[in-house]
Write a structure and sequence with these properties.
The chain is mainly β. The chain has one domain: Jelly Rolls (Sandwich). The chain contains no helices and twelve strands. The chain has a seven-stranded antiparallel β-sheet, with no helix packed on it. Strands 2-3-12-5-8 form a five-stranded antiparallel β-sheet, with no helix packed on it. β2 and β3 form a beta hairpin.
């Protein structure tokens, strides 16, 4: 499911589509109009217990922009999200480790203090987000996401 800034009056748009060769492409246009500035996609996981792992590893090809991998410990639409930001290099496949200990709790773009860390034994949702005033077209290809 995509969740863009239209939920608060913005005009950004995004989608996640699967190519014929099995690559997921998160792409769209980020607009700062109407106080907007974010685009995201997320999915609910069938497997939720990652207590025996140290983090997620992703294989991505980006456009040189910064993205955020996000995890939630519940199935709510809004609320606390745990984020791990990563940089991409234009048109280069990269494998990036996202250790659970490095995920930062956040609520609507603000970092939170005094909240429990990400509970790796109960990760319900994962997703991707682009924000940080990176206006314009964006494209992130995702080959796979795995636990390590």
């Amino acid at each position: 499911m995509n969740v863009d800034d239209v939920v608060m009056g913005g005009v950004s748009d995004s989608a996640m589509q699967l190519t014929p060769d099995g690559i997921a492409v998160f792409a769209g246009n980020l607009s700062l109009e109407n106080s907007g500035g974010f685009a995201s996609v997320r999915t609910v996981l069938a497997q939720r217990n990652y207590a025996d792992f140290d983090g997620f590893r992703i294989r991505v090809k980006g456009d040189g922009k910064r993205y955020s991998f996000r995890a939630r410990n519940d199935d709510r639409f809004d609320g606390i999200v745990y984020k791990y930001d990563f940089e991409t290099v234009p048109d280069k496949w990269m494998e990036i480790d996202l250790p659970f200990a490095g995920f930062i709790p956040s609520f609507r773009g603000r970092t939170l203090a005094d909240v429990p860390p990400l509970d790796s034994a109960h990760i319900v949702q994962i997703g991707l987000l682009i924000s940080a005033r990176q206006e314009g077209a964006f494209r992130l290809e995702v080959d796979w996401v795995e636990a390590y």
